[in-house]
Design a protein that fits this description.
A hairpin with a 4-residue loop joins β2 and β3. The protein has two domains: 80 residues; 211 residues, Fumarylacetoacetate hydrolase, domain 2 (Alpha-Beta Complex). The chain is globular. It is an alpha+beta fold. The chain contains seven helices and 19 strands. The longest helix has 17 residues.
């Protein structure tokens, strides 16, 4: 299934299943569910309900009802929220692609090295990325987001994929000046965690439709220019290895583990990084095969 979380009015958290690339049909969201997509997926009849709804949506489209009509919507006519609203943790890999390690004069990785990203950083498809006034070097990082579907601890690599709800596109926005200052002391916190620094979506794609998570093409463009182009098959630690490793602590439904990013980030561009760093007005498109295209625009931070 390819699922979305959306709203038409502020405060809503409604869910839907994609009928085709531009249309989706609304599903009945579980009542009082903190993460409605995860709750829906864990319903024993969830897949049956979704398939029935998608069949109805296909009939509506066939009959020429291409605009929002009852339970059928166009992606462009609603606000698409990140698939997960408030995970207990977002675990981000630091250096998991060979070429990215090389461009950053990387270190050996005897085991996965990570940092935590704040749930308050999450935003959805087409939501603006705020350029904080105190930041000087703003950067992008396309990543694969692995979404935990079932509570688990100390799972084996062979069983790891069975605990997943699905996958999504993720963009680890980074304030490099603050990040690198923090890292001199061995920390990585605020530089990765400003509000809006975690674009995610537009879809949650279940494992049966996502394909092999360790062999998906990745691309990030800024204003139509390709900046990153790679594949998850270049990951040092594969998806099941990451789930196995991080399940040493309890993983909760809705938790997110990201893949790390491939080479091509702005900060390591030579001889001059300045033309590649993000600035207000830039349009970022992050794509992963089978998972869709996530688009966000950089804007100046609003004054509250």
């Amino acid at each position: 299934m390819r699922l979305v979380r959306f709203q038409q009015k502020p405060g809503e958290s409604r869910i839907g299943a994609m009928v085709e690339n531009s249309h989706f049909v609304e599903l009945q969201a579980p009542k009082a569910a903190n993460e409605p997509l995860i709750t829906f997926l864990n319903d024993a009849h969830g897949e049956e309900k979704a398939r029935s709804a998608v069949d109805s949506g296909l009939k509506m489209l066939k009959n020429g009802k291409s605009k929002a009509n009852g339970s059928l919507f166009k992606l462009d006519d609603v606000t698409i929220l990140p698939p997960i609203g408030r995970p207990s943790k977002i675990i981000c890999m630091a250096g998991n692609f060979e070429e990215h390690l090389k461009e950053g004069q990387g270190l050996d990785r005897p085991f996965p090295i990570s940092f935590l990203k704040a749930p308050t950083s999450l935003i959805g498809h087409r939501a603006p990325i705020h350029y904080p006034r105190k930041v000087k070097l703003l950067d992008y990082e396309v990543e694969l987001a692995t979404i935990v579907g079932k509570r688990c601890k100390d799972v084996s690599k062979s069983d790891a994929l069975g605990y997943l709800a699905g996958f999504a596109v993720f963009n680890d926005i980074s304030a490099r000046d603050i990040q690198f200052t923090e890292m001199k002391r061995g920390f990585c916190n605020l530089g990765k965690n400003f509000d809006t620094f975690g674009p995610m979506g537009p879809l949650l794609v279940t494992p049966d439709q996502a394909g092999n998570p360790d062999d998906l093409g990745m691309e990030l463009r800024v204003n139509g220019q390709t900046r990153q182009f790679a594949s998850t098959k270049q990951m040092v630690f594969k998806t099941s290895e990451l789930v196995e490793f991080f399940s040493a602590m309890t993983l909760e439904p809705g938790d997110i583990i990201t893949s790390g990013t491939p080479a091509g980030v702005a900060i390591y561009r030579k001889p001059d990084k300045e033309p590649y760093l993000l600035k207000p007005g830039d349009i970022i498109e992050s794509k992963i095969a089978n998972l869709g295209r996530l688009q966000n625009t950089v804007v100046e931070e609003p004054r509250y």
